[in-house]
Amino acid sequence: MSSIFFKNFSKKTAFIFIMFFASFSLNSVGENVKKSQSEKNQSEKEKTATKTDYEAVIKEYKDFVKTTKPEVRDEIKKYREKVADLNKQKSNLYKELSQEAQGYLKKEKAIRFKIPIEDRREYIKRIYSDINSGKN
pLDDT for 71-81, tens place per residue? Predict the structure, then answer.
């Protein structure tokens, strides 16, 4: 039956058929290009809006910093430097751990984050106390 279909299928019909689908696909491509251009314009408008928002926030932050005493700013700067040093020490300590210990910490962290944040500390304390006391 398919051979009958193809015998009666002329070259003109095939050409019309191909042109129809080609024009249909070009129209859909054109619509996608128009959509992507409008989305691009929208994102540029959002960037402009956020840039002006950021400028307002930066101005507010500068005004706030000006009202802070220089001694307090120096104290905060030293605090942040100490925190950065502690973070470097933590990173170095982690790198000194064996691969097995690093894997344990990654797995433990993934499991802990499944516990609701409000109850996380309480549950973890209870788990470790149960393990240390020999409970299952």
Answer: 999 999 999 99
